[in-house]
Specification:
The protein is an alpha/beta fold and about 300 residues long. The chain has 10 helices and 14 strands.
């Protein structure tokens, strides 16, 4: 199982934002990982999905890219004959919200933090990839939004959606399946790789670390943790990721506070100690240094 999930992680990472134009969605299959009697993780192209399917309804976390909707629907149909009633977006990026339009037209109720609707309503610019995203059509927008948290009482579970301020973006939500002891982290957590932190739309490494701390506080040693990208995880792996971010960003921050220029920081090879373990995703070590340094310098 671990080998399978590792291979799936590479597939998901390859289909992330900068590689979208090169993705052949026809060749990507959705893989289903059963976590409990009612909770599942789905892996395809884009962010990992969470699914709660039980006696009440089908509740889905994120929906990847639009071309994946048919395959995702087929995978869910193997779990439950019920339609998808709720879709919760963990943030606004297209590899997590691209299926909103299709699912919204099919009758799903889309839910997200209020900043997700604000971001999706107007054109966005992802500076790190020099990429503009047009406004989403009305049917793709969240119709229910919340400011700090909301709870769904479905399928015998208490499903808590909790806003994590200024983490991967300014609209991130983690989802805690209380009874099933599962946490979906969205793109706050890239398991086994450096994360993309979208500072252009309100993200920050400090916010990511704070969000990890909050998730770790509610997780047990048995909690299954679904990352935005990468294989199924656990509390120990999330703690290692959090500690890497704290150590890595601390080194960048020290140089920024010393008044070093961006060129000096990127030339200091601050990533060398971490690359073997964390540098195999689509964000490489030098790019991660640059991403952190630019944001810290901007916020001085």
């Amino acid at each position: 199982m671990k080998t399978l999930l590792g291979a799936l992680a590479l597939c998901a990472a390859a289909a992330s934002l900068p590689a979208l134009a090169q993705t052949d969605f026809s060749k990507i299959e959705v893989q289903t990982v059963k976590l409990t009697d009612t909770v599942y993780m789905l892996v395809g192209a884009g962010g990992n999905l969470g699914v709660s399917a039980g006696e009440d309804t089908v509740f889905v976390i994120d929906d990847q890219y639009a071309p994946m909707t048919e395959k995702i629907a087929a995978a869910i149909a193997k779990i439950s004959a019920k339609p998808v009633q709720f879709v919760l977006n963990t943030h606004w990026h297209g590899d997590h919200t691209g299926g909103n339009e299709n699912l919204g037209k099919a009758g799903s109720i889309i839910v997200a933090h209020e900043n997700v609707r604000k971001r999706m309503s107007v054109e966005q610019f992802i500076e790190a990839f020099n990429m503009r995203t047009p406004p989403a059509p009305k049917v793709a927008l969240p119709v229910i939004t919340f400011a700090s948290a909301t709870t769904f009482h479905l399928n015998g579970d208490e499903i808590r959606a909790i806003h994590m301020p200024n983490a991967h973006t300014d609209g991130d939500t983690i989802v805690h399946f209380v009874r099933n002891d599962v946490i979906h982290m969205g793109d706050i957590y890239f398991n086994g790789m450096y994360p993309f932190i979208d500072s252009a739309t309100g993200g920050s490494v400090e916010g990511v670390i704070s969000a990890c701390d909050k998730a770790l506080a509610i997780a047990s040693d048995k909690t299954r943790i679904i990352p935005g990208h990468g294989p199924l995880s656990n509390k120990g792996e999330l703690k290692a990721y959090r500690d890497m971010l704290a150590a890595f960003s601390g080194r960048v921050r020290d140089m920024v506070r010393q008044g070093r220029k961006l060129e000096e920081i990127t030339a200091a090879n601050l990533n060398s100690e971490f690359d073997d373990k964390w540098g195999k995703g689509f964000i490489k070590g030098p790019k991660f240094v640059e991403m952190l340094a630019k944001d810290m310098i901007r916020r001085q």
